[in-house]
Structures are given as structure tokens and as C-alpha cells.
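Class, study these two lines:
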Amino acid sequence: MKDIIKIFADSTTPSGTEGKDSAYGTIKPVPGGDTDVDLTGSIITILNSVLGVIAVVCVVVIVMGGIQYMTSAGDAGKVKKAKDTILYAVIGLIVCALAATIVNFVVVRLLGSGE
């Protein structure tokens, strides 16, 4: 929030407005400016996207296990298979959440905060 306020404050004063849009307080590209790509942000975005897809797959598998459980009609084998499916999908979802946390922590620690 402080950064947004600082950008707005800089954009409303006559000095320090180079590269800033004074009407909205947003940064505009400066010709010949810094074009470095934020490596940390890119890696985190890619890994979070992959882990997000995996999490969605886990949720779909949980739903499929629930459907198997409801349609098992009391058959012990089908009930066990459905419960195992739900259990393994929940474990996968937990592992996915922990992986996202660990990856974000490690990438930020190794590559810096990206600022």
C-alpha cells in the first residue's frame, strides 16, 4: 500500500514524474528504460500455475471418488475403492499445498524478493 501511495504522491508533484502517468499514478514505460525481466516473479508464477492445475485435478478426483462412493450400492469392494480414491486425492491436495508453500519460500530465499 505504501508503494501505491508513493507512486501517487510522486505522480502528483512536478518533480519525480518521469515515467509516471500523472493522471492515474501508474508507471508508464520509459523509452530506453530498464527492461530486466523479474526472474523470481516469473518462476513463482509458472510453478504456482502448475501447482494450481494439480490442485484442480485433486479436487476433481475427490468428486469422482464421492460419486463412486454414492453409486457403490453397498458393495464393500467399491466402497473401499471410493474411500481410497478420496483419501489419496486429499493427501495429494495437502502435498500440493505444502509444495506451493515450500517452492515460494525457497525461490524467494534463493533468488531474492524480486525488488
About this structure: Residues 39-111 form one domain. The radius of gyration is 24 Å.
